[in-house]
Amino acid sequence: MEAEVAFGLVLRELRKQQSLSQEALALKAGLERNYISLLELGQNSASIKTIFKLTPYLGVTATEFIGMVEAKILNN
Fold first, then answer.
1. Residue 9 C-beta-side C-alpha neighbours within 13 Å
2. CA 20/CA 30 separation, integer angstroms
């Protein structure tokens, strides 16, 4: 599985666990809703800065998030 796809799947799973819409997450993180959508679809790559903007609202640390993405890549 490509890293961007795994990233998007983890992002979507965590966002939904927090009961956040793409719009709500985007507003909290200071990002555009369209950018969140592209990330979730695996059509864009996120910088480390973006990961640090997102993770406080996803209930995980940046380290945990990256670990989840890595696990998804290795298990699929």
1. 13
2. 14
DSSP code of 47? P
Domain tally, the chain? 1
Distance (Å, whole) CA 60 – CA 68: 10
Q: Are 24 and 58 in contact (CB under 8 A)?
A: no
CATH number of the domain at 66, please: 1.10.260.40
Q: What is the DSSP letter of 43?
A: -
- Token pair recorded at residue 8: 């998007």
**Residue length of the chain:** 76
Please list the pLDDT of the chain residue by residue as tens digits (76 residues).
899 999 999 999 999 999 999 999 999 999 999 999 999 999 999 999 999 999 999 999 999 999 999 999 999 7
Look up residue 9 and give its DSSP letter: H
